[in-house]
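Let's inspect a concrete specimen:
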Amino acid sequence: MSDKSTKFWDSSTEKTCIFIEISIMSKNLILEQENQVGWITINRPDQLNALNRETIAELHQALLDFRENANIGVVCITGAGEKAFVAGADIKEFADYTNSEGGALAATGQAILFNYIEQMNKPVIAAVNGFALGGGLELAMACHIRIASSNARMGLPEVSLGVIPGYGGTQRLPQLIGRGRANQLIFTGEMINATQANSWGLVNSVVEPAELKQEVMALAAKILKNAPNALEKAITAVNAGFDGISQGFNVEIESFAACFGTPEFRMGTQAFLRKEKANFRG
């Protein structure tokens, strides 16, 4: 792996920033690091960034590399071009699948990408630019936070193809917007715009397309001020309340207890007592 880095002045933060182009073998992704933010751009604009099996495998590898990279504290996922975040799965790949092949497709995709994102040890933000449909919306929903551009359009149109969402859509959408609204979107296959998605709680905020990256980076900067170990434990505890198996309150207690005695905890509490800001990331 060979990386190229460039320093530049960020006038919004009045700091010198480092932009790193990370060279990892990838056909369908652009991987970059800006300070401590890892960017994954799905780069199939001619196919509206549709997810095929190859792209899903590359996404898994990129997330694995970012997970192990101590210099990355937040991960952001977006799509290339102005038209689409991800406009769905690549239908031509599975149009002739049998029942067992369809089941294996969903199980594998959930395990190596969608559930993997949800269980990442670092916050993952979806920068939703343009269409986020089917597998694209499922990808965004697997992320911990979603920021949308005002031209975004979202939906789960799978029923119009004679199938249902298979990458977690029937589970995560009701968690985010409630069963009734989720049923409406899934049963009709209709799209909603960014304003509607925001009012329903499907996305955290909406900004103009030209401001999307700046908004995501500003949010990432706020997150990066906090302790990495505590962020990882918070992700675990929040997820436990929704998985239908774990006792969320018990996991919260265990995760809370695990923070005590760590170098981060000592640094944070001592800085607070000195009325200073802890610098967790150096």
The chain has two domains: 4-224, 228-273. Residues 228-273 form one domain. The mean pLDDT is 90. The CA atoms of residues 176 and 202 lie 6 Å apart.
